[in-house]
Specification:
The protein has 255 residues and is of the alpha/beta class. The chain is 38% helix and 23% strand. The protein has a domain of 49 residues. Strands 6-7-8-3-9-10 form a 6-stranded mixed sheet, with helices on both faces. A 4-stranded antiparallel sheet has the order 2-1-4-5, covered by helices on one side. The protein binds adenosine-5'-triphosphate (ATP). The site of adenosine-5'-triphosphate has 10 residues, from helix 1.
Length: 255
């Protein structure tokens, strides 16, 4: 579904400058859940911005369903880490969620139904008339997820979406995401710093090294549906986590 081939990105006019992304190649299948791990500054956000058509690439290409991505594709939605900046404070929750649908040309009544359904999917069916600032951080992030879902994307890109919420809320959001991923049959590309989160969510984890390229691919064959207690207590969970931890440590030498 998504094909990234020999992608490189150099910021600024000097082609000899150090690239943020270099020779990055991977594919994502339809309905796959892929997590991306990598140390701070290795180029993960730059990669996502190139994939989303928000940043011009220096060389290589990104294809979504065989079409080269050259601007934000209509079938893609994004959820970023900073929910406080991603929601409009002067709009109600409902209007925040419905906002991108107007640009997609979705008829009003259909947009209203999609908004309500998405808010219910994230457990906020009764909060449509609230304003973002009346909600907790975790609830605001759920609104951002609802907005992405209401848009009915085929592919969802998420950049550390749960990094700024507490551990308990985070676990709830992970389970919510797995539930909606299965229910809406979407493809997810999820960037995180958290190894446990990557193993818990993914079908496959890619470890990036700077400048962003795939240093290691780990298949996660843990059974689904996953559960915070049984999945994290599964013997393979520890094995996968150790493998990824070794790859991410400065001395790691992934093949
Ligand atoms: N707009 C920009 N202009 C110039 N350089 C940039 C720009 N954005 C990022 N960079 C540089 O590109 C490199 C990769 O940054 P990027 O934010 O993509 O990494 P990251 O892996 O997402 O980091 P983090 O995990 O800390 O969010 C860094 O060296 C950064 O300084």
């Amino acid at each position: 579904m998504l094909e990234v081939a020999q992608l490189s990105k150099v910021y600024g006019p000097d082609p000899a400058a150090r690239p943020a992304v270099a020779d990055l190649t991977f594919d994502v299948a339809a309905r796959e859940f892929v997590c991306i791990l990598g140390s701070s500054g290795c180029g993960k956000t730059t990669m996502l911005r190139c994939l989303a058509g928000l940043e011009p690439v220096t060389s290589g290409h990104v294809r979504l369903r065989d079409e080269v991505v050259s601007g934000p594709p209509r079938e893609m939605a994004f959820v970023f880490q900073d929910y406080s900046r991603s929601l409009y404070p002067w709009m109600t929750v409902e209007r925040n969620v419905a906002f991108p649908l107007r640009y997609k040309g979705v008829p009003k009544q259909e947009a209203r139904a999609a908004t309500q359904e998405a808010l219910e999917a994230v457990g906020l069916g009764g909060r449509g008339r609230s304003y973002p600032w009346q909600l907790s951080g975790g609830m605001q992030q759920r609104v951002a997820i609802a907005r992405a879902l209401a848009y009915r994307p085929q592919i969802l890109l998420m950049d550390e979406p749960f990094a700024s919420v507490d551990a308990q809320t985070r676990a709830g959001l992970e389970d919510l995401l797995l539930d909606v991923w299965q229910r809406y049959e979407i493809t997810v590309l999820f960037v995180t710093h958290d190894i446990d989160e990557a193993v818990y969510l993914a079908d496959r984890v890619l470890v990036l090294r700077a400048p962003a390229h795939v240093a290691l691919t780990v298949e996660v064959d843990l059974p689904r549906p996953r559960n915070q207690l049984t999945t994290k207590g599964h013997p393979d969970f520890g094995r996968l986590r150790s493998e990824l931890l070794a790859a991410l440590s400065p001395a790691g030498t992934p093949q």
